[in-house]
Specification:
Elements lengths: L2 H18 L2 H20 L3 H16 L6 H16 L3 H16 L6 H17 L3 H19 L26 H14 L3 H16 L7 H16 L3 H16 L17 H4 L1 H16 L3 H19 L5 H15 L3 H40 L4 H15 L1
Length: about 400
């Protein structure tokens, strides 16, 4: 049989199989992959989430490109690509999603706005500030027009950017969108506009009535960073201090019991605290207050160790910060010890990628034996293995 005939037979076989599969089964399979991707994203396992979403996209394409599930799946896939800093791929996906959502029979302004915001974030990450700014503003205007300027859910149209400690498909508040635009103006050197937006973001976040909400802490740190960069230490320091205090008061789950750093509660286990401690330590170091900076870097290191484990890649950043401080003080041996540990952590992270390859190979072999080569789970295994090799 020649190649053309073989391809035709395969196409006919696929047609028969698809026609024999009830729509209900396809919807259930799509939901299985989508739910799996959600759980994987929450755990920071982005490569595996991408594989699940690609499988979900294949399933949802059968519903028709105008089906909302198809665009939603591609949007989540673009988000996962953003989390992995694969911005050109994310940009292409988001442009496709934007076209689909704009051409939908029943256009939803908030869905279009969230796509514009995500695309603007991708442009910003690539340094395309001129392209990003109008998209952010268009998205904000569109959301305000759809919901009204005083609506409490005004900015629930944006997927968050890739944080250091993981992410999810949940949508953040207006404060995040304002922060994005402020960051953009700051990168362009438009500091007055950035300050205005940072203050507006903080005001919006505080109006929620949750002083320890992550949005409030992010806004405080961002505004403090701006003041520090402008040489306004008296304005920056209280914002850094307040951000750290609020992080310490974070409540576990819905329980409401507050714990501090010294109490050994969530404050000690909260990786967000390490970020606040590092920011304040950087500020103290720039002021020449090296003893205070050292104390804060050490607290950040202890917090990361307890929250994330002793070999998490995030620790390498704090270790290098503290090593740089020691080097500036002429404490070379201590600096070199920390640098060696940071390098070991990075090496372990690279080694874990090789372990992932072996694990995926084993999973692929087992699934092929148990399920057959054409089972959807085998496709997920193949995609995951390909992603590890590509990384």
């Amino acid at each position: 049989m020649n190649r053309k005939a073989t391809l035709l037979c395969l196409a006919l076989a696929q047609t028969v199989l698809c026609s024999a599969t009830p729509v209900k089964t396809g919807a259930a399979t799509w939901k299985k992959y989508s739910d799996a991707a959600e759980r994987l994203v929450e755990k920071g396992r982005y490569k595996e989430a991408e594989a699940a979403l690609r499988a979900a996209a294949d399933q949802s394409r059968a519903f028709g490109t105008q089906d909302k599930r198809y665009a939603d799946t591609l949007f989540k896939l673009a988000s996962v690509l953003r989390y992995q800093a694969r911005y050109s791929e994310a940009e292409a996906q988001l442009k496709q999603v934007l076209a689909l959502r704009k051409s939908a029979p029943h256009k939803q302004a908030l869905l279009i706005a969230e796509t514009l915001n995500a695309l603007a974030s991708v442009y910003r990450a690539q340094g395309k500030f001129e392209e990003a700014a109008p998209l952010y503003e268009e998205a904000l205007d569109m959301a305000a027009g759809a919901l009204g300027p005083g609506h409490p859910e005004l900015a629930r149209f944006q997927i968050p950017q890739h944080p250091d400690q993981g992410s999810s498909f949940t949508q953040p508040s207006l404060a995040v969108s304002l922060n994005n635009l402020a960051d953009l103006y700051r990168a362009q050197g438009k500091l007055d506009q950035a300050e205005r937006l940072y203050k507006q973001a903080l005001e919006v976040a505080e109006k929620k009535g949750e002083p320890g909400h992550p949005d409030v802490i992010v806004c405080l740190n961002n505004l403090a960073d701006l003041y520090a960069a402008q040489g306004k230490p008296d304005e920056a320091e209280p914002l850094y201090e307040r951000a750290m205090a609020l992080t310490l008061q974070a409540t576990p789950g819905q329980g409401g019991e507050k714990n501090g750093l010294d109490a050994g509660g969530l404050g000690r286990r909260n990786p967000d605290l390490a970020l606040s401690l590092n920011s304040l330590a950087d500020f103290k170091r720039a002021q020449g207050k090296l003893d205070e900076a050292e104390r804060l870097y050490k607290q950040a290191l202890e917090t990361d160790e307890e929250a994330l484990g002793p070999n998490h890649p995030a620790l390498a950043v704090t270790l290098n910060n503290l090593a740089d401080l020691y080097a500036a003080q002429g404490r070379r041996k201590e600096a070199e010890r920390l640098e060696r540990r940071a390098n070991r952590i990075r090496e372990m992270s690279l080694a874990s990628e090789q372990l992932d390859i072996n694990t995926y190979r084993q999973a692929l072999a087992l699934d092929e034996m148990a399920l057959g080569s054409w089972h959807p789970d085998v496709a997920v295994d193949l995609n995951s293995l390909a992603d590890v090799y590509r990384a």
